[in-house]
Structures are given as C-alpha cells and as structure tokens.
C-alpha cells in the first residue's frame, strides 16, 4: 500500500477514483474548513439576493416576494444614500492618502536606524497597538480627549483657557478616525515592508555610494524600488476594501452630534438593517458597496498590469 | 555597511532617532497613564492632567469591579469564547491549510479561488445576521465564534507556509507506511510551531477583542463579553457628549480605567512571549510564498 502511494505520486495517469482513494485523508482534512466557507461565507452571498426581494422574516427567503431593482431605484433617489456615500468616499480617500503610506514611511525610517537594540525596542512598541481591540482604543480616546477632564483638554485648557470638543465636533471626526487608524496599525504594517527591505543587496547600496548618492537619493533610488511590488500588492488589496470603513471603529466613535459626517455604509447598514429591520433595503446598500469594491479591485489590477507591475493573482 | 555620512545625513539621523523615540513613547504612555489612573484616587484624577506615578495608590477600583457579578461574568464569557474560539479556529485553519497546500488533490485550484474570492466579496452584515438567526445561534456563545472562525487571508498564509516544508520528509514517512493524516499530525504540525504560535496569538486577540458579533447576536446581559460591557460603560458615562445621562449614575473615572486595564492585560501578558514568533511567522508565509 505504501509503495503504491509513492508510485502514484510520481505518475499522473491514474484514474479519478484512485486519486480520490489515494488522497482520502486530505479530503477528510479539507472538509470541515470547506463546509465552514460554504456556510458562513457563501450562504450569506446567496442571501444578498434578498436585495431584490421584499424580504419578510415571517415568509423567509423562499416565501418573500421578488421586486427586481426596486430597492436600488429607491436608493438612488434617497438623499441619505448620497450623504452616506459621500462620507464613505471622503473617509476612504483620507485613509488612502494618510493611513496607507504611514507604515511605508515608518519602515523607511526604521530601516535607517543602525543601533539594533534601539530599533528592536521601537519595533516592539509600535507593533503593540495592533493587538488592542477597537473598544480599548475608543476607550483610550475618550479618556484622553473628553472635555470632561480628559488629559489632552486639561492641557489645552491650561494654555488657552478653553477646551476643544474632539469627540462631538463633526469637524474633528475624520481627524480622530485617521489618527486612531495610524496609531493602531502603522507600526504593525511595517513588518511586511521591513521584510521586503532585507532582500535588498548591500552591493546596490555600495554601488549607489560610489556613484555619489546621498542618504535621500539612496532611499529614493534603491530602497523604495525594492519594496515597490509589496506596495502595489497591498494597494490592490486595499482597493477591494476601499468602501469598508471598519464598522467597529466608526460605530464606537459615532454619536448624535457627529452622525451627519460619521455615518458610512457599514454604520448605515447596521442602523437601518439590524436595528430598524429594513433587511432588503440595507442588503441593497451592502450589495452596492460590494460590487463597487470588486470593480475597484479589478480596475486597480488592470492599471497595475498595464504599468507592467507584478500583481497578486 | 559603511555609512558615508554627510552633515545632512547626520542631521537626518538625529532627527530620525528622536522622532522614532517620540512615536515609541506615544504607544506606551497612554497605557502607563491608564494604569496609574486606575490606581489613583478620584481627587487626584480630577486635579492632575497627566501622571504615571499616582501620589496615593489605592486598589479600590479593582476591588469594586471584581466584587460585581456583571464584570466577573463578562470576563468568564470572554475567556470561554477566546479559548474555545482559538481552538476551533486553529483546528479548521491548520487542517484546511495543510490539505490545500497539496496541489495534487482534485479541485485544489477551485477551492483556493473560493477562499480568495471571500476576501474580495462578502455577503455583508444583514445576510450574515439572518443566517445566524436561522441557524438558531442568536444569544448563543457559538455566534461569537463561528462567524469569525476562519480568516481567509491567514489561511492563505498557512497554505504557503506548509508549502515551504521539505517534500522529502513526507516521502520518506510515506515509505515507512504513514498515511497523509499521519504525515500531517506527526511531521507537518511539529514543524509548524512558529506559524501555530503566530495564529494562536492572532486568533486569541481577535476573539478577546471582538464586540461586533456580541453587539449583533447577543442580547442577554448575562452573555456579554467584556468588550461589550466596556463599550456599554463608555456609552453610559457619555463622556463623548460631555453631558451626563440623568438616569444613569456616571461611573467613577478610576473604575472605567480599571476595566480598560483588566480588558487589556491578557494581551499585554501574551504579547511579549509570542512576539518573537509572529514577525517570523508572518514572513514565512507572506513574503516567501
């Protein structure tokens, strides 16, 4: 039996059933995970079809009435929808220009540190916030920024005599969100760039030095190109989630005062879908979001390919 | 490497060291303050803006929260979900990851694409909620585990990790009569310590910190995990608005800080032990793969 197995590994000309029999343990191992993906990922995808129904919890998926694109038509006539779309796009844009480059800049700076001990200490410290949940981060933000005895406002008051309502003022909302994201994830994001940087050969730097390149020219012409493919892959992945502002983070920071600017797709879906029970309507919003995500990811991938870059798949 | 330093380069170095030092401090100082504040008296919290050493140390806040059943129960729920969830997740991820690392199984490519597609497109919040409801999992602790039991991105990393293991080991074990199951349990798993350590940490952190699923699927107060409790405390305190809800007594500042500390401690505790693994584990899978 054992001999047959190894022989089978070498020859491809064996029948379907022999293959099934030979690899039965592998199928056994793949099965639980596969079932999980089908139930918890693919059944909900199928479930998005309720966007084309007037879904009623009493009639269920099979009993509810099909209404075609009604919900989408109503969506595009709804001023709320455009407010939410606008909020989502603005935040997504800020995330791309401020949050996305943060770990790259941090990695480049860390890469210039020669004292190994210092570098390692900083790395240990900046990775840490990644492991904190959004509830902890929101709680820390409340503790530090509240006008009601928060550290930051106590200091501002000491110098200026007045306080700033960071948590309630809609003008501060996006700054706070972006700041939280950078604080939480920029450090951890450097791991992948620092790893890519270890693959740069020392000869390239030495050649650049011989050519008279200073620190910044070396960074620009040697270091940055070395991590370009990683940046592109991450940017493509980022595009797929362009409209996904983390619900956990934004919901925690949303309140009655800033809701006009805070409500992004996921928060809106939660309020209309889960708390108000408008299942079909909010699923239509979710589907719109998902389709835009796919278009963005394919678009970025197409552009990256045209520019002759490596892509993920 | 010789640095070949220009005066500009030296100015940059000084700036760089100081700037990164400040960033490092920005990551720890908030915690030091929260820990200090949780041990301080209310009077001191109101009087001093920032400190990392309280004048008088008191454990009153901790004594109080640990005397309440609400808090103890929520910690219990979180521990149960974290342990149960991490075991479930690792079992699912490692078995599926190992099987999919073998290109010889039928439907291998299709299955990988099925996994990758779920990174790009998801059913969304409402259909998932309806699924959990139809499965009868509302108000069950399984609702805090099953919907997030696997992370497709991490599965891909696990698959590429298993591909880096030498084929010769598998072949020689097979010659000795081992089945694929035997190879998986006796050869592949023992060689996967860095990746197991990494994803134990990642999954444990995910379950411990999750409040989203609890918010959606748990209405019974007795089954609140600690993060949902903390969120409720923060909302009650309504520090965000700077106005106090008349119906609810505003909790003392030091109590809130103590809850934050206790909710963070498990992470602080495992992080240093696993840190040496996760950077390596992440890289093994992502860069080489």
TrEMBL record, chain A:
The keyword Zinc does not apply. It comes from the Bacteria. The chain crosses the membrane at residues 25-43, 89-110, 131-156, 176-198, 219-237, 284-304. The keyword Metal-binding does not apply. One of its GO terms (cellular component) is plasma membrane. Residues 85-300 form the ABC transmembrane type-1 domain. Its main location: membrane. It is a multi-pass membrane protein. Pfam families: BPD_transp_1 (PF00528). One of its GO terms (biological process) is transmembrane transport. SUPFAM superfamilies: MetI-like (SSF161098). It is found in: Cell membrane; Membrane. InterPro entries: MetI-like, MetI-like_sf. Keywords: Membrane, Transmembrane, Transmembrane helix, Transport. Belongs to the binding-protein-dependent transport system permease family. This is Sugar ABC transporter permease. It comes from Paenalkalicoccus suaedae.
From TrEMBL, chain B:
Pfam families: BPD_transp_1. It is a multi-pass membrane protein. Keywords: Cell membrane, Membrane, Transmembrane, Transmembrane helix, Transport. Residues 75-274 form the ABC transmembrane type-1 domain. One of its GO terms (biological process) is transmembrane transport. The chain crosses the membrane at residues 14-35, 47-65, 77-100, 112-132, 144-162, 183-205, 255-274. It comes from the Bacteria. GO terms for cellular component: plasma membrane. Its main location: membrane. It is found in: Cell membrane. Gene3D superfamilies: MetI-like. Belongs to the binding-protein-dependent transport system permease family. This is Carbohydrate ABC transporter permease.
């Amino acid at each position: 039996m054992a001999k047959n197995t190894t022989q089978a590994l070498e020859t491809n000309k064996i029948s379907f059933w022999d293959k099934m029999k030979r690899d039965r343990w592998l199928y056994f191992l793949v099965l639980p995970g596969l079932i999980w993906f089908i139930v918890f990922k693919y059944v909900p995808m199928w479930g998005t079809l309720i966007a084309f129904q007037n879904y009623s919890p009493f009639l269920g998926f099979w009993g509810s009435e099909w209404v075609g694109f009604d919900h989408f038509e109503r969506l595009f006539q709804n001023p709320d929808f455009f407010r939410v779309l606008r909020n989502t796009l603005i935040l997504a844009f800020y995330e791309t220009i401020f949050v996305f480059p943060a770990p790259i800049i941090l990695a480049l700076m860390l890469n210039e540190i020669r004292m190994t001990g210092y570098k390692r200490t900083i790395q240990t410290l900046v990775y840490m916030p990644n492991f904190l949940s959004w509830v902890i981060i929101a709680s820390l933000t409340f503790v530090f920024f509240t006008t009601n005895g928060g550290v930051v406002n106590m200091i501002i008051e000491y110098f200026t005599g007045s306080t700033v309502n960071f948590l309630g003022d809609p003008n501060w909302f996006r700054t706070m969100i972006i700041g939280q994201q950078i604080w939480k994830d920029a450090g951890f994001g450097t791991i992948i760039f620092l790893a890519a940087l270890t693959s740069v050969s020392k000869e390239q730097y030495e050649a650049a030095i011989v050519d008279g390149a200073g620190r910044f020219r070396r960074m620009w012409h040697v270091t940055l190109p070395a991590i370009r493919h990683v940046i592109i892959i991450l940017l493509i992945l980022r595009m797929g989630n362009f409209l996904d502002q983390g619900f956990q983070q934004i919901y925690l920071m949303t309140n009655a005062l800033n809701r006009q600017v805070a409500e992004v797709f996921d928060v809106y879906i939660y309020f209309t879908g889960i708390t108000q029970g408008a299942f079909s309507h909010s699923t239509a919003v979710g589907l719109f979001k998902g389709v835009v995500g796919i278009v963005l990811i394919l678009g970025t991938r197409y552009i990256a390919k045209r520019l002759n870059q490596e892509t993920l798949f | 490497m010789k640095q070949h330093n220009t005066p500009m380069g030296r100015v940059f170095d000084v700036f760089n060291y100081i700037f990164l030092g400040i960033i490092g401090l920005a990551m720890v100082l908030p915690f030091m303050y929260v820990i200090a504040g949780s041990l301080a008296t209310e009077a001191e919290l109101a009087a001093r803006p920032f400190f990392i050493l309280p004048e008088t140390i008191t454990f009153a806040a901790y004594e109080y929260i640990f005397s309440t059943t609400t808090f103890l129960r929520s910690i219990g729920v979180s521990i149960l979900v974290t342990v149960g969830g991490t075991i479930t997740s690792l079992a699912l991820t490692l078995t599926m990851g190992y099987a999919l690392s073998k290109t010889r199984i039928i439907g291998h490519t299709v299955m990988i694409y099925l996994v990758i597609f779920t990174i790009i497109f998801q059913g969304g919040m409402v259909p998932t909620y309806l699924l959990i409801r139809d499965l009868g999992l509302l108000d069950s602790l399984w609702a805090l585990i099953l919907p997030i039991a696997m992370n497709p991105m991490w599965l891909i990393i696990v698959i590429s990790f298993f591909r880096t293991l030498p084929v010769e080991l598998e072949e020689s074990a097979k010659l000795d009569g081992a089945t694929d199951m035997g190879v998986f349990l006796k050869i592949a798993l023992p060689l996967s310590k860095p990746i197991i350590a990494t994803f134990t940490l990642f999954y444990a952190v995910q379950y411990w910190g999750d409040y989203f699923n609890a918010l959606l699927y748990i209405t019974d107060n007795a089954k609140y995990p600690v993060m949902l409790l903390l969120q409720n405390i923060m909302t009650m305190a309504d520090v965000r608005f700077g106005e106090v809800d008349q119906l609810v007594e505003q909790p003392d500042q030091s109590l809130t800080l103590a809850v934050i500390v206790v909710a963070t401690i498990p992470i602080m505790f495992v992080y240093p032990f696993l840190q040496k693994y996760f950077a390596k584990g992440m890289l093994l899978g992502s860069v080489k793969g």
